[in-house]
Every structure is written in structure tokens, then in C-alpha cells.
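Listing S7. Sequence submitted for prediction.
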Amino acid sequence: MAVARVVHTADRTLTGRQLASLLTPPAEGRFGYRELARAVREALLDGRVALRLRLPAERELASVLLVSRTTVTSAYDLLRESGYAHSRRGAGTWTALPEGQAPTVLGGFHDDAGATIDLALAAPQAPEDELSAALAAAAAELPRYAGAQGYHPYGLPALRAAIAERYTARGLPTLPEQILVTTGAQQAVSLVLTLLGRAGDRVLAENPSYTNALDAMRGRMLRVTPVPVTEAGWDTGLVDAALRQTAPRLAYLIPDFHNPTGRLMPAEQRRELARSARATGTWLVVDETLTDTALDVPAPLPFAAAAGEATASRSSPSAR
């Protein structure tokens, strides 16, 4: 996305109160300029604040945080010097990452060999033996499809059938006709937002949430209503109140090992949120990309099955 578009799009601007709600306050209670720069940098690195968002005006943020404008000015200067913010005269200051560097988490983590593991990326190296076997099996099947025209806008029929069978085995009866195969998670989210959302519609989203999904919402001029997810998980009473007060057209949820907190939503909370969404006529867009990361607990049921809502909108890693 071009910087000029980001800078001049009002929907991509954080207010002072929005930014303050995303920052972890220092132990001493009040921000100094170094603590403020650190808090913004950490919020940017762990996904609470998206890239290329315009930061609030210095005077506005100073008023919200009850600090001097000089404190905010110095913090913004420090962010610019370290590459975590860019500015343009008359256009404000927006978030960035240092040029030529990948996002990393503060502190770092090292394996037994001393190599650095980047915890900002959930993309481990592919297992070579399994990958080779999968590619060989796929190559053996290729002649079956090479003679056809190869145009399957909803996905290869055999793949749609296999995905439907997987959903059924997991507890949600599904037909191949209900499956759309896309090129990735981001395309799936974008397609759903385009189909169900119109410019100006409200969409409820967790805070923090998957940064690229939030970018897709803003790119379609949807108005995001945030609801917090903390270390304790979801407050269904708060979500219900937000649904009833704002009546959003869509609600984007990540109940399975939430990104970035890792929380798993209990079954009862799923049922409560499904009832609340049905009462307000809100489409639920449930991102189940991380379902298969269950390591020490059973893999959760699909949200629609656990909630008892056969019509709930769902989005899964397999279907993408």
C-alpha cells in the first residue's frame, strides 16, 4: 500500500485515546519520553498497532496521557531516529519498521545451538521428508487433471470434497458446495469483507487482533469497533454490550488460539457470542487459521458446531 494513500486516509489515523488504550504504561505510572517511545515500539511489534497508521497529534496525545507536549515530541523524535516512525511536513507521523529489517520481538529467543528464533513470525522451516513425499504424491496425481481445462473458480472439486469431509469429521456437517478454496488466509478475509461489508459499515474486532485483517477492514472503509482481549481472555458481557450498542454488520473473531494472545475461547463463551450476534443480526466471521496449533489440548470444534449455529459465517485455514 502506498504511503501517500495511508497518510491521507483519515480512517488510518489513531486518536490519542485509541493509542493510549493500546500502550502498556510504565511501572512508575507516568510516561517519560523514552518509556513512551518504548511502549509504542512494543505495541507496533506485537501487533497491537498496525504499520502505516498515522499517530495522533502531539498535543492531543499529551493531553490524553497527562504529559507535556515536549515528552510526546521527544518520543516521536526517538521513534523516527530508530526507524519506527516516518514523518512528512503537513502530513503527520505514521508507524513504520526500520528499513531493511524484519520485525522482531524485544529480548529475542535462542535455540540450543544459539541461533536466534524470530518469534514475530509463525513460519518454521518445512520438514524436508514430509514435503518431498507430499510433492511426489501430488505429481503422481497431476496426469488426472492435466487433460481438463483446469478452471475451477471455487477450487478443485476433490479438494473441496476433502475439506468438507474434514469439517464433518470435526463435528460440523459440511457439503463440498459450501467450500470455497482461496490462495491464502488474507484473500479469504478480504473476500468475506467485500461480500458482506459496505463502506461505512461497522465491524466489531478484537483488540489486539490480526493486523492484516484490520488493514483489510480499513482498506474497505469499514468502521472498526474494538473490544479488548486480555490475558484472561474475552469478556462476553462487554462484547454483548458492544454488539447491542453499535449493531455492527460484521464481527471478526479469532477464538482458536487468538492472535496475538494465544487464548482459546471456552465453548460456553462461543454459545453466548453466537446468541448475541444473532440478536443483533451481526454476521460472524470466525478465523480458524490457528485451530491446528493445538498441542496440549484437544483441537476445538468448529465455532459454528460449538455454538450450535449452523448458519454462522466461518473461515478456516483449509478453506483458504
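Caption to Listing S7: primary sequence and predicted C-alpha cells for the chain studied. The beta strands are 85-88, 92-95, 202-207, 223-230, 233-234, 250-253, 283-287, 314-315. The CA atoms of residues 132 and 181 lie 23 Å apart.
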